Amino acid sequence: MAPGRFRFERFQLDIHDRQLRRDDAPVELNGRYLDALALLVSEPGRLISKDRFHDEVWRGVPVTDEALTQCIRTLRRQLGDDAGRPRFIETVPKHGYRFIASVERIGEDARPGPEAATPEVAAPGAAAGGSWTEFGLLGGAGMVGGGVAGAFVGLFYGFGAAPEPLQAGMGAASVLLVLICISVALGLIAGAGVGFGIAAAGFAPDRKWLWSLLGGGAGGLLIGAFGKLIGLDAFNLLFGQSPGEITGAAEGALVGAALGLGAWLAGRFPGPPRRTPGFAAGGLAGAAAGLIIPLIGGRLMGGSLDLLARQFPQSRLSLDPIGAVFGETGFGPVSQVVTGGIEGLLFGGCVVGAMMLARRAMRQPRSR
Predict the structure, then answer these.
(1) How far apart are CA 348 and CA 11, in angstroms?
(2) Residue 127 included in any domain
(3) CA distance 253 to 5
C-alpha cells in the first residue's frame, strides 16, 4: 500500500503519518491494526485475503486466524461498525475481508468523487497482493543471488579441478577463470528464471505457498530446458558431438520448486529485525533438491562438467581429484550427491536470501 491520505464518512486515515482521525479527533489503534486498516482502505471494494494480512501486516510472523479476527473486531469497534450489518468492513467467509465504504483519496494525489482509487489498486495483479515493481525487484534480486552463487560454485569446481593452481601454472588458472565465468553466467540465468517465477506468486489471491512452489518450478523448468537445448546445439555445431545427458528441464524444475517452497517458508519464520531466515530456508531447500537429483539419476553442474571432461579427454578439465576426496575412482555417485547438495545449498541460500533481503528493504518504511 502506498503512503497517502484517505477519507471515508467521518474518518480520515493518513498512512504516512500513521494516524486515524474521526472529526479531527484521533482514534487509538496499535501499529498492526493501523496497517490492517490501511491495507483495506487502500484497496476499497477488493477482497483482501487472509494470506495478504499475514504477509503484509504481520510480515511473516506466525499468528493464528484468531489474531486476525481480533484485529478486525477491534477495527470495527473503533469505526463504530457492525459485523451483522457492516458499513465499512465486510467478511468474506473462509477467504478474507473487503472494505465496502466509499473512499476518497485526499491531498496532492486526490481525485474527484468517492471512486478515487490509486493506480496501484487498478494495476493488474494488485487485487491479489502483488505489484509490478515488487515483481521486478524480487526477480532481479533472485538473478543477482544466482550470480553470486555461481561465483562460489565456479570457485569450488575450479579449485577442485585444479587443486594446485599456483604450481600448475597458467593452465590451471585458465580453468579456474573459465569455470567461474561460466558458473556466474549460468547462475544469473537460472536465478532470473527461478526468482521471477517465485515473485509471480505475489499476484496470487491465496494459497501463495502453492503458487510460489509452482512458479519456482516453472521458471526452473523453462530455463533448464532452454539452457540444455542451446548447450547441446552449441556443442554439436562446434565439435560435431554433444556431451549427452547434461542438466536440463527436470533438474531445473525440481530445484526451482524447492526454492519456491523455501521462499514461502522464509516469510513464515520470525526473526530479529536485522536478520532474515531466507538464506537458511533457501539453502536447506536447495540442498535437499541437490542431494535428491543425483540419487534419481539426474545431474547438476558437477555431473555435467564430468560428462564434458569425459567426452573431450583432451581438455584440461577433470573432476577426478574431487572424487578422490571421497575415496572414489573418478567423479562417482558419492561425489555427485555431495557436490549436488553443496550446489543446491549455495544456489538456494543466495537466491532466496537475496529475495528476502529485497523484500525486507521494500517493506522497511512501513514499520515506522
Answers:
(1) 46
(2) no
(3) 44
CB 306 within 8 A of CB 331: yes
- The parent domain of residue 34 ranges over 5-122
Q: For 71-108, write each residue's pLDDT tens digit.
A: 999 999 999 999 888 999 999 998 899 999 999 888 64
**Gap between the Cα atoms of 75 and 270, Å rounded:** 25
Give me the torsion for CA of 202, 207, 209, 213, rounded to 10°: -80
CB within 8 A of 233, min separation 6: which ones? none
Whole-model pTM: value is 0.65
CATH at residue 78: 1.10.10.10
Neighbours of 113 (CB within 10 A): 7
Query: What does the alpha-carbon distance between residue 311 and residue 314 come to, in Å, rounded to a whole number?
Result: 9
Query: Which candidate, 282, 283, 229, 218, places its Cα nearest to that of 254?
Result: 218
Q: What is the Cα 356 distance to its own chain's centre?
A: 7
Query: Rounded to 5 degrees, what are φ and ψ at 98?
Result: -140, 135
Distance CA 346, CA 19 (A): 44
Q: Are residues 39 and 150 in the same domain?
A: no
Residue owning grid cell 532452454? 226
Distances (CA, A) of 41 to 7, 54, 84, 112, 323: 9, 17, 20, 17, 60
| Residues 202-228: tens digit of each pLDDT | 777 667 778 889 999 999 999 988 888
Question: What is the C-alpha separation between 82 and 76, in angstroms, rounded?
Answer: 7
Measure the CA angle with vertex 97, ends 94 and 200; round to 5°. Answer: 85
> Is 114 strand, coil or helix?
coil
What is the spatial distance between Cα 109 and Cα 95, in angstroms, rounded to a whole number?
31
